[in-house]
Amino acid sequence: MSLQVKIIKANNGLRLACFFRKKYTFSNHYECSINVNGQIFTTTEQYFMYIKAKTFGDEKAAQDILNTSNPQQAKRIGRKVKNFDAKVWNAKRIGVMKFINKTKFEQNAELRKQLLDTGDYVIVEASPFDKFWGSGIGMSDKRIKDPTKWGANMLGQVLMEIRKEFRAQMDQTTSSSEQNGVTDEPPDK
C-alpha cells in the first residue's frame, strides 16, 4: 500500500502530508478494525463519539454509536449527546483522540508503516470545515501552503506525536538489541 496522503510543499519549505475524508488512512473516518478491551470499533470516529456519549452517561447514544459502522452517523449521534458539558469534554478530547489513534496504528502494521513513512513531513488534516482538528483549509486551496493561515490542526499534531513515540520505541528496541549482542548480522563462523 503506497503512502495515502497528498504531498504539498509549504511556502516556508516544509513538506506537508495532507489528508481529508475517509479514503485517507489517517482520517478518523477510515475503516479498519480497532479492538479496545474486546469491543471492536470500525473507525476512530466511532470510538471517539462512543467515549463522548459514555463520558456524559448517555447510554442510548453510546449504544446507537456502537450499532452503526458509518462514521458520519456516529458523528451525528455524538453531536446530540445528552448532558454534554463542553468544558469537561474539551479537557478530555485530545487524550481520547490520541489513545484511539495510537491503538489504531499499533494494531494495524500497514497503517503504522504509512505513518512512519511520512518521515519528518508535517501531517495536516486539510479539512476546510474544521479549524480545531484540521487546518480549516482544503488541499486545493492555495492558503494550505501557508501554515500561519491554519487552524489548530490538532489531529495532525496528535498523529505526529504518535509517530515520534513509535520512532522512539523503535530506537529503544534497536539500542537494546545492540547492547544485548543481538544484531541483524549473521554470527561469525
How would you portray this structure in words?
The chain has 189 residues and is mainly α. It has one domain: YbiA-like (Tetracycline Repressor, domain 2, Orthogonal Bundle), CATH 1.10.357. Helices cover 44% and strands 10% of the residues. The protein has 6 helices and 5 strands. A 3-stranded mixed sheet has the order 1-2-5. It has a two-stranded antiparallel ribbon with strand order 3-4. A hairpin with a 2-residue loop joins strand 3 and strand 4. Helix 1 runs parallel beside helix 3 and helix 2 packs antiparallel against helix 3. It is globular and about 45 Å long. The termini are far apart.
Q: How many beta strands in the DSSP annotation?
A: 5
Structural class assignment: mainly alpha
Strand order of the largest sheet: 1-2-5
The rough form would be described as: globular
What's the end-to-end separation, in Å?
Answer: 39 Å
If you consult CATH, what is the topology? Answer: Tetracycline Repressor, domain 2
Output the helix-strand order: EEEEHHHHHEH
The helix tally amounts to 6
What's the CATH H-level superfamily name? Answer: YbiA-like
Short structural summary:
The protein is mainly alpha-helical.
Keywords:
single chain; 189 residues; mainly alpha; Tetracycline Repressor, domain 2; 3-stranded mixed β-sheet; 6 helices; 10% strand; YbiA-like_sf; N-glycosidase
What's the layout of helices and strands?
Elements: E1 6-9, E2 15-19, E3 34-36, E4 39-41, H1 44-55, H2 59-66, H3 71-78, H4 86-107, H5 109-116, E5 122-125, H6 154-179
Parallel strand pairs: 2-5
Antiparallel strand pairs: 1-2, 3-4
Helix pairs in contact: 1-2, 1-3, 1-4, 2-3, 4-5, 4-6
